[in-house]
Amino acid sequence: MDAVDFVILLLHPLIATVFGIWLYRHWSTIKAIRLKRGGAWSRIRNQNRDDVIAEHERQGRWALPTILGVILFAILANLHRYVNLDAEFDELFSLHGWLGITLAFLTFYMTRTGKRMVSQREEKSSMAKMKGIHRRAGDLMLALLVAVMFLGFLRAIQIIQP
Ligand code: HEM
Ligand code: HEM
Questions:
Q1: pTM exceeding 0.85
Q2: Domain spans of the chain?
Q3: pLDDT band at residue 1 under the 50/70/90 scheme
Q4: Least crowded by CB within 10 Å, which of 15, 20, 41, 83?
Q5: Cβ(23) to ligand 2 under 6 A?
Q6: Pick from 161, 162, 160: which is nearest to 7 by CA?
Q7: Left, alpha or beta for 48 (phi > 0: left; psi -120 to 50: alpha)?
Q8: What is the pLDDT of residues 46-93, one digit of tens each?
Q9: Do residues 87 and 77 make contact, with C-beta atoms less than 8 angstroms apart?
Q10: 152 C-alpha to center of ligand 2: Å?
Q11: Mutate to test the pocket of ligand 1, among 44, 47, 112, 131 (most ligand atoms within 8 A of CB)
Protein backbone atom coordinates (compact mmCIF):
# COMPACT_ATOMS: atom_id res chain seq x y z
CA MET A 1 0.00 0.00 0.00
CA ASP A 2 1.63 3.30 -1.05
CA ALA A 3 1.22 6.77 0.47
CA VAL A 4 -1.64 7.78 -1.88
CA ASP A 5 -3.65 4.64 -0.98
CA PHE A 6 -3.04 5.37 2.67
CA VAL A 7 -4.34 8.95 2.38
CA ILE A 8 -7.46 7.87 0.45
CA LEU A 9 -8.26 5.23 3.08
CA LEU A 10 -7.61 7.50 6.02
CA LEU A 11 -9.60 10.54 4.86
CA HIS A 12 -12.89 9.03 6.05
CA PRO A 13 -11.61 8.04 9.55
CA LEU A 14 -10.04 11.49 10.04
CA ILE A 15 -13.11 13.50 9.00
CA ALA A 16 -15.38 11.11 10.92
CA THR A 17 -13.34 11.55 14.11
CA VAL A 18 -13.69 15.34 13.89
CA PHE A 19 -17.42 14.97 13.21
CA GLY A 20 -17.81 12.60 16.20
CA ILE A 21 -16.09 15.04 18.58
CA TRP A 22 -18.21 17.93 17.23
CA LEU A 23 -21.46 15.92 17.63
CA TYR A 24 -20.58 15.06 21.22
CA ARG A 25 -19.93 18.73 22.02
CA HIS A 26 -23.13 19.78 20.26
CA TRP A 27 -25.16 17.30 22.31
CA SER A 28 -23.46 17.95 25.66
CA THR A 29 -23.77 21.75 25.30
CA ILE A 30 -27.53 21.74 24.77
CA LYS A 31 -27.93 19.11 27.51
CA ALA A 32 -26.03 21.36 29.92
CA ILE A 33 -28.71 24.07 29.56
CA ARG A 34 -31.13 21.83 31.44
CA LEU A 35 -28.76 19.86 33.69
CA LYS A 36 -26.64 22.90 34.70
CA ARG A 37 -23.57 20.82 35.51
CA GLY A 38 -20.46 19.33 33.91
CA GLY A 39 -17.72 20.69 31.66
CA ALA A 40 -20.16 21.92 29.01
CA TRP A 41 -22.04 23.97 31.63
CA SER A 42 -18.88 25.77 32.75
CA ARG A 43 -18.32 26.69 29.07
CA ILE A 44 -21.78 28.23 28.58
CA ARG A 45 -22.86 29.36 32.05
CA ASN A 46 -22.09 33.01 31.27
CA GLN A 47 -23.85 32.97 27.89
CA ASN A 48 -27.41 33.95 27.19
CA ARG A 49 -29.71 30.87 27.02
CA ASP A 50 -31.41 32.03 23.80
CA ASP A 51 -28.03 32.53 22.11
CA VAL A 52 -26.96 28.99 23.03
CA ILE A 53 -30.20 27.57 21.60
CA ALA A 54 -29.93 29.69 18.42
CA GLU A 55 -26.37 28.40 17.93
CA HIS A 56 -27.61 24.83 18.52
CA GLU A 57 -30.22 25.26 15.79
CA ARG A 58 -27.73 26.86 13.37
CA GLN A 59 -25.00 24.23 13.84
CA GLY A 60 -27.53 21.36 14.07
CA ARG A 61 -28.62 22.04 10.48
CA TRP A 62 -25.09 21.10 9.36
CA ALA A 63 -25.16 17.65 10.99
CA LEU A 64 -26.98 15.87 8.15
CA PRO A 65 -24.94 17.21 5.20
CA THR A 66 -21.75 16.55 7.19
CA ILE A 67 -22.54 12.92 8.03
CA LEU A 68 -23.51 12.35 4.39
CA GLY A 69 -20.08 13.75 3.44
CA VAL A 70 -18.43 11.38 5.95
CA ILE A 71 -20.24 8.44 4.32
CA LEU A 72 -19.32 9.66 0.83
CA PHE A 73 -15.61 9.53 1.75
CA ALA A 74 -16.10 5.97 3.07
CA ILE A 75 -17.74 4.95 -0.21
CA LEU A 76 -14.86 6.52 -2.19
CA ALA A 77 -12.33 4.64 -0.02
CA ASN A 78 -14.19 1.37 -0.56
CA LEU A 79 -14.42 1.97 -4.31
CA HIS A 80 -10.67 2.54 -4.36
CA ARG A 81 -10.10 -0.68 -2.39
CA TYR A 82 -12.34 -2.63 -4.77
CA VAL A 83 -11.03 -1.19 -8.07
CA ASN A 84 -7.34 -0.61 -7.32
CA LEU A 85 -6.47 -2.68 -4.27
CA ASP A 86 -8.20 -5.96 -5.25
CA ALA A 87 -10.51 -6.12 -2.23
CA GLU A 88 -13.31 -8.71 -2.41
CA PHE A 89 -16.88 -7.37 -2.70
CA ASP A 90 -17.82 -8.91 0.71
CA GLU A 91 -15.01 -7.00 2.42
CA LEU A 92 -16.68 -3.67 1.59
CA PHE A 93 -19.43 -4.15 4.19
CA SER A 94 -19.23 -4.26 7.97
CA LEU A 95 -21.30 -3.80 11.11
CA HIS A 96 -19.53 -0.43 11.48
CA GLY A 97 -20.83 0.66 8.07
CA TRP A 98 -24.43 -0.43 8.68
CA LEU A 99 -24.51 1.25 12.10
CA GLY A 100 -22.99 4.37 10.48
CA ILE A 101 -25.85 4.47 7.97
CA THR A 102 -28.36 4.03 10.83
CA LEU A 103 -26.70 7.01 12.52
CA ALA A 104 -27.29 9.06 9.35
CA PHE A 105 -31.02 8.17 9.49
CA LEU A 106 -31.13 9.26 13.14
CA THR A 107 -29.40 12.52 12.19
CA PHE A 108 -32.13 13.09 9.60
CA TYR A 109 -34.74 12.46 12.32
CA MET A 110 -33.00 14.86 14.72
CA THR A 111 -33.05 17.59 12.07
CA ARG A 112 -36.74 16.95 11.36
CA THR A 113 -37.82 17.03 15.01
CA GLY A 114 -35.55 20.02 15.67
CA LYS A 115 -37.06 22.02 12.77
CA ARG A 116 -40.57 21.02 13.86
CA MET A 117 -39.86 22.46 17.32
CA VAL A 118 -38.74 25.70 15.73
CA SER A 119 -42.01 26.00 13.77
CA GLN A 120 -44.05 25.14 16.89
CA ARG A 121 -42.23 27.89 18.76
CA GLU A 122 -42.99 30.35 15.94
CA GLU A 123 -46.67 29.32 15.97
CA LYS A 124 -46.59 29.73 19.78
CA SER A 125 -47.89 26.18 20.31
CA SER A 126 -46.47 23.72 22.86
CA MET A 127 -43.24 22.00 21.88
CA ALA A 128 -42.96 19.87 25.03
CA LYS A 129 -43.86 16.57 23.33
CA MET A 130 -41.51 17.12 20.39
CA LYS A 131 -38.75 18.18 22.79
CA GLY A 132 -39.10 14.87 24.68
CA ILE A 133 -38.83 12.94 21.39
CA HIS A 134 -35.87 15.05 20.20
CA ARG A 135 -34.10 14.59 23.53
CA ARG A 136 -34.54 10.79 23.63
CA ALA A 137 -33.54 10.42 19.97
CA GLY A 138 -30.44 12.53 20.78
CA ASP A 139 -29.50 10.19 23.65
CA LEU A 140 -29.92 7.17 21.38
CA MET A 141 -27.83 8.94 18.78
CA LEU A 142 -24.98 9.45 21.23
CA ALA A 143 -24.99 5.77 22.25
CA LEU A 144 -24.92 4.78 18.59
CA LEU A 145 -22.13 7.29 17.88
CA VAL A 146 -19.93 5.70 20.57
CA ALA A 147 -20.50 2.22 19.04
CA VAL A 148 -19.82 3.48 15.47
CA MET A 149 -16.62 5.29 16.51
CA PHE A 150 -15.34 2.27 18.47
CA LEU A 151 -16.06 -0.15 15.60
CA GLY A 152 -14.57 2.41 13.16
CA PHE A 153 -11.20 2.32 14.97
CA LEU A 154 -11.26 -1.50 14.83
CA ARG A 155 -12.11 -1.36 11.12
CA ALA A 156 -9.25 1.06 10.44
CA ILE A 157 -6.79 -1.29 12.16
CA GLN A 158 -8.20 -4.26 10.21
CA ILE A 159 -7.90 -2.49 6.83
CA ILE A 160 -4.51 -0.85 7.31
CA GLN A 161 -2.69 -3.97 8.50
CA PRO A 162 -0.93 -5.70 5.59
C1 HEM B 1 -27.82 15.98 15.24
C2 HEM B 1 -28.23 17.10 15.60
C3 HEM B 1 -28.90 17.40 16.92
C4 HEM B 1 -28.73 16.88 18.18
C5 HEM B 1 -27.79 15.74 18.61
C6 HEM B 1 -29.63 17.57 19.07
C7 HEM B 1 -29.78 17.35 20.43
C8 HEM B 1 -30.58 18.06 21.27
C9 HEM B 1 -30.74 17.83 22.69
C10 HEM B 1 -30.01 16.73 23.49
C11 HEM B 1 -31.59 18.76 23.18
C12 HEM B 1 -31.96 18.96 24.66
C13 HEM B 1 -33.34 18.48 24.98
C14 HEM B 1 -33.56 18.68 26.47
O15 HEM B 1 -32.81 18.11 27.26
O16 HEM B 1 -34.49 19.41 26.82
C17 HEM B 1 -32.01 19.59 22.07
C18 HEM B 1 -32.90 20.66 22.17
C19 HEM B 1 -33.33 21.41 21.10
N20 HEM B 1 -32.94 21.26 19.79
FE21 HEM B 1 -31.65 19.91 19.05
N22 HEM B 1 -30.32 18.53 18.33
C23 HEM B 1 -29.91 18.44 17.02
C24 HEM B 1 -30.34 19.20 15.95
C25 HEM B 1 -31.25 20.21 16.03
C26 HEM B 1 -31.73 21.02 14.91
C27 HEM B 1 -31.25 20.85 13.45
C28 HEM B 1 -32.62 21.92 15.41
C29 HEM B 1 -33.41 22.99 14.72
C30 HEM B 1 -33.21 23.46 13.55
C31 HEM B 1 -32.71 21.70 16.85
C32 HEM B 1 -33.51 22.42 17.70
C33 HEM B 1 -33.61 22.24 19.04
C34 HEM B 1 -34.45 23.02 19.92
C35 HEM B 1 -35.37 24.18 19.49
C36 HEM B 1 -34.27 22.52 21.21
C37 HEM B 1 -34.98 22.99 22.49
C38 HEM B 1 -34.12 23.97 23.21
C39 HEM B 1 -34.86 24.48 24.44
O40 HEM B 1 -35.80 25.26 24.25
O41 HEM B 1 -34.46 24.08 25.54
N42 HEM B 1 -31.88 20.65 17.18
N43 HEM B 1 -31.39 19.15 20.93
C1 HEM C 1 -19.91 9.38 12.18
C2 HEM C 1 -19.17 8.42 12.16
C3 HEM C 1 -19.02 7.39 11.05
C4 HEM C 1 -19.87 6.98 10.06
C5 HEM C 1 -21.28 7.47 9.77
C6 HEM C 1 -19.18 5.96 9.31
C7 HEM C 1 -19.71 5.26 8.23
C8 HEM C 1 -19.02 4.36 7.44
C9 HEM C 1 -19.54 3.69 6.28
C10 HEM C 1 -20.99 3.80 5.77
C11 HEM C 1 -18.55 2.93 5.76
C12 HEM C 1 -18.62 2.07 4.46
C13 HEM C 1 -19.00 0.64 4.71
C14 HEM C 1 -17.88 -0.19 5.28
O15 HEM C 1 -16.75 -0.11 4.82
O16 HEM C 1 -18.16 -0.93 6.22
C17 HEM C 1 -17.39 3.12 6.58
C18 HEM C 1 -16.15 2.56 6.36
C19 HEM C 1 -15.05 2.74 7.16
N20 HEM C 1 -14.98 3.43 8.34
FE21 HEM C 1 -16.44 4.61 9.08
N22 HEM C 1 -17.92 5.80 9.84
C23 HEM C 1 -17.79 6.66 10.91
C24 HEM C 1 -16.69 6.81 11.73
C25 HEM C 1 -15.48 6.15 11.58
C26 HEM C 1 -14.33 6.32 12.45
C27 HEM C 1 -14.28 7.23 13.68
C28 HEM C 1 -13.36 5.51 11.95
C29 HEM C 1 -11.95 5.28 12.44
C30 HEM C 1 -11.27 6.10 13.16
C31 HEM C 1 -13.89 4.85 10.77
C32 HEM C 1 -13.20 3.95 9.97
C33 HEM C 1 -13.68 3.38 8.81
C34 HEM C 1 -12.86 2.61 7.87
C35 HEM C 1 -11.37 2.32 8.04
C36 HEM C 1 -13.72 2.23 6.84
C37 HEM C 1 -13.33 1.46 5.55
C38 HEM C 1 -13.15 2.46 4.41
C39 HEM C 1 -11.94 3.33 4.62
O40 HEM C 1 -10.82 2.82 4.68
O41 HEM C 1 -12.09 4.58 4.74
N42 HEM C 1 -15.19 5.27 10.57
N43 HEM C 1 -17.69 4.00 7.61
A1: yes
A2: 3-160
A3: confident
A4: 83
A5: no
A6: 160
A7: beta
A8: 999 999 999 999 999 999 999 999 999 999 999 999 999 989 999 999
A9: no
A10: 5
A11: 131
